[in-house]
Amino acid sequence: MNMIRYILTLFFVLTVVVTSAQRRITPVEIPGKSGSAAVADSVATEAKPDNLVETTDMSGHTVLVDTISGVEYRDTILTQAPKLVYPRFEAVSVGVNVWDPLLRCFGQKYGLIGFWGELSIHNWIKPVVEAGLGQAEMTPDNGNYTYKSSVAPYFKVGLNYNFLYNSDTAYSVYAGLRYGISNFGFEVTDVTINQGYWGDDMMINVPSQRATVGYVEAVVGLKVLIFSNFYIGWDIRMHSIVHQSNLQYGEPWYIPGYGTRTTPFSASLSVSYTLPFHKRKQVDTDSK
Fold it and tell me: What is the mean pLDDT of the chain?
C-alpha cells in the first residue's frame, strides 16, 4: 500500500509541474513609445544601452542579456515560440501491453501482462502510469537448477514526449522515461552440484528470498490509429537497475516489469483506446 501511495504521489507531482508551467514573456519596452508597432520600430532603430548584448538562444529566439545583472530578456516582438494547436488537456488513453502474453505462446518462460494510462497535454507532453503482473519459472537447457518467481505486481511512472505534437493525432512518434519498482519473491530449486569422479551428484535448494528492485527506462516508440479511437503501438526500452535489496543468496534473474537482468533491452506491443476531451479538428500542417 505504501508503494502504491508513493507512485500515485510522484505521478501527481509530475502532472502538476507540467500543466502549471507557464512561459514567461518579458517584452522589451522603450519609454516614449506605445503599441507593438512603436516598440518594434524602436527595437529596430534606437541604439541599445551599452550593458545590453543581443544573442540568440537554442530555440532561435532573440535574447537581450544585461551584462551587469546577468538577467536575460526574450524579445517577444521579434520572435515567437512555436504555437501549440491542441488544447492543454487534450485526451486520456488506456491500454494493455500484450508483448509478454504473445511471447509466452512461443516459449518464453517469464512475464505476464501490463496495463497503462496516459494523459495528453497539448498532444505534446504525456504523463504515464503503468501497472502489471510478472512471473517466471525457468530451467536451463542443462537442467541443473530451476528458477521460480511468484506472481508479483510492478508499477511505473514517467513521461512521453511526442515529436509530432502539432500533427495529426492519428500518428505519434515519442521518446520517454520511466521509473519502475517491484517487490517480489523468488527461489532457486533443484540445484545439482557435481561431486566429481568419486562422488554422487548432490542436489540442494536455495532458500526463498524477497527483493525490492527499482529501475529506470528510456523509451522510444510509435503509435498509430487503426480505427475509430483505437490505436496500436510499439516501443523499445533500454533499462538499468538503480537500487535493489541486499540479498544473502544471490540476485534475482527475473524482475517483474523489467525482464531478465541479463539483457538491457525489452519491448512492448500495446492496444489502446483514446478518449478526447474536445472534438478533434483536422490539423492544417501547411500553416505551421
Answer: 82
Cα angle value 175/10/17 (rounded, 5°) = 70
pLDDT in tens, 127-178: 999 999 999 999 988 778 899 999 999 999 999 999 999 999 999 999 999 9
Identify each DSSP E strand in 13-139 by its residue range: 52-56, 62-66, 72-74, 89-97, 113-121, 125-138
Non-local (6+) Cβ contacts of 170 within 8 A are 224, 225
Domain boundaries, the chain: 2-21+84-279, 35-74
Residue with cell 494523459: 119
Q: How many whole angstroms separate alpha carbon 60 and alpha carbon 140? A: 57
Beta strands in the chain (DSSP E): 52-56, 62-66, 72-74, 89-97, 113-121, 125-138, 146-162, 171-193, 202-227, 230-244, 254-255, 259-260, 265-276
Burial 242-281 (b: 16+ CB within 10 A, else e): eeeeeeeeeebebbbbbbbbeeeebebbbebebebeeebe
Rounded CA separation 125/176 (Å): 10
The dihedral formed by the CA atoms of 55, 57, 60 and 63, expressed in degrees to the nearest 10:
-50
The answer to whether 129 and 252 are in contact (CB under 8 A) is no
Eight-state DSSP code of residue 44: H
216-234 as b/e, with b when 16 or more CB fall inside 10 Å? ebebebebeeeeeeebebe
Helix (H) or strand (E) holding 14: helix 2-20
pLDDT digits (tens, 9 = 90+) for 34-74: 444 444 444 444 455 667 777 766 555 677 777 777 676 66
Give CA torsion, residues 120, 123, 128, 130, to 10 deg.
90
Alpha-carbon gap, residue 288 to 276, rounded angstroms: 22
The answer to whether domain 2-21+84-279 has CATH 2.40.160.20 is: yes
Question: 148 is written with which cell numbers?
Answer: 521460480
